[in-house]
Amino acid sequence: NHNIPLQVTITVNPMSATAGDFTALAQTLTLPPGGDQQLQTLTGQIIDDSIAEGMESFSVELGVQSGDTQVALGEISTATVMIVDNDGIAIGFTKALHRESEGTGGVPVTVQMVTGRLETTVT
Questions:
Q1: pTM of this prediction?
Q2: Fewest beta carbons less than 10 Å away: which of 15, 58, 63, 78?
């Protein structure tokens, strides 16, 4: 329980995401006086671009204001945000095994294109 506002610093580390993939979060967070457990929500927007990039990530890290002896970091003081790309195109066969008897004239092998969630790295 605290009776003065507490200031917490927020640091965003881009990792594989860039500034064009998300909006910045607040750099400080103020917890109002009172209560043993209080929740504050930081909201950042994920930017929907049209670039096939694969999975990207950034981390958000909490810190205490220098010299503040009332605040200690909890067990979880870093969170990782994974951005799932919705612009990728993946291609593959519709089935892995094709069986065809001799003398039938041909074997149909179908390739399928899927747009949307691309969770593998595009190289």
A1: 0.66
A2: 78
